[in-house]
Amino acid sequence: MSALHAVADALATSGTMAWQIGWSLILGFTLSAVVQALVRRETISRLLGDDRPATLVRATGLGAASSSCSYAAVALARSLFRKGASFTAAMVFEIASTNLVLELGIILALLLGWPFALAEFVGGPVIIVLVALAFRVVVRRKLVDAAREQAEKGIAGSMEGHASMDMSIDVDGGLFRRLFSRPGYTSVSHIFVMEWAAVLRDIAVGLLVAGAVASWVPDSFWESLFLTDQPTLSKLWGPLIGPVISVLSFVCSVGNVPLAAVLWNGGLSFGGVVAFLYADLIIVPILLIYRKYYGTRMMLALLGIFYISTVIAGYVVELLFGALGLVPDQGGARVGEAGISWNYTTWLNLAFGVLAIALVVRFFATGGREMLAMMNGTPNDEKS
C-alpha cells in the first residue's frame, strides 16, 4: 500500500503541474503556428547564409519564432544547413528555437516565477554570442566541411519528417487576410497539432519525472548535492552541476521546466537552474543525433561548446540578477502543492481548450492524419 500511495502521490503532483501549464502551452503553440504559417523555410535559409553579426541576429529572431521541440529544432537546423545556411547560423537558430520561444517563458513564469522567465531571455543571447565566438575561433573550416559532408548523406533522425515540412501559406493580401483565410486556418491547425505531437513525449516524461522526483527524493539529498549549507560554493557549483543533471535526465524542450521547478525547491542555485534549462540541446539522445548528422568530432565539439556556454551564461545570470536583487527566494516554485481548484487557471484552460479543439478538428478534417504518419519518416528528397 505504501508503494501505491507513493505512485499516486507522484502522479497527483505531475497532474497538478500539467493543469497549471496547460493553457500556456496551447497559447504558445498557437502563436508559434501563426508565425510559422506566415514565414517560408526557403526565406529562412536564404537569410542565414553567413555568420556575420546581422545574420546571427536574424537567426536568433527566426529561431525564437519557430519550434520549441528540441528534436525538431535539431532536425530543422540540419535542414537549413543543407539548404545553404552557415553552420554557425544554423546552430544559433537551433538554440533560439528551444531557449527563446514564448511558450517556454510563459511556463517558466507560471511554475518558477517571472525572474526565471526574464533570466531565460537574458542568458539565451549570452549563450548565442559565446557559441558564435567559439565557432569562429575554435572550430576549423575542415571540421565544418566534414560536418556538411556527413549532413549531405541525409541520414534520417528523430523528427526528420516534421523538420522537412514547410506549411507556410501562399495567399495574396495583407497579414490578417492571409492568416484568417481558409488556407491560413488550415496551416495554423496543421502546425499546431504537429508541434504538440513533437513535444508531447517530452512534456509527459518531464512531468512524470518531476512528479516522481518531487515526491520520492528527500530534501537531504538535494541539500547535500547542491551544497545548500555553503551559499558561496553553492552558487559556484550550481551552473556546473545543472547542465549535467539535464544531460542525464533525457528530458528536453519545455518538458524540463517542471523538473527545474523541483530542483529550485531542492536548493539548486538560481544560475544552476537556468544553466539546467539551457542544456536541453546536449542531452544524451540529442548527442547521438548530432553524431549521426555531423560526425563524432563535431558532436564532441558541440557538447563542449554548448556545455561551457551554458555554464558561463549561468554565472552571468547569477551575478547580474544577484546584483540587481532579482533572485527570488529559494523554494518558491509551484510544484503541484495547491492541487486543482476553480480559479483563473480553470477558466484559462477551458477557453484555450476550446481553441485547441477547434484547431484539432480542422487538422483532421483537412488531411492531418497523413501528415502525422509522415512526421517521423524520411522526406522523399532526402532518401538515398
TrEMBL record:
It comes from Nocardioides mangrovi. It comes from the Bacteria. Belongs to the UPF0718 family. It holds the Pfam family ArsP_1. It is found in: Cell membrane. The chain crosses the membrane at residues 20-39, 87-112, 118-139, 240-264, 270-290, 302-327, 347-365. The lineage of its organism: Bacteria, Bacillati, Actinomycetota, Actinomycetes, Propionibacteriales. The keyword Cell membrane applies. Keywords: Cell membrane, Membrane, Transmembrane, Transmembrane helix. It is a multi-pass membrane protein. The keyword NAD does not apply. This is Permease.
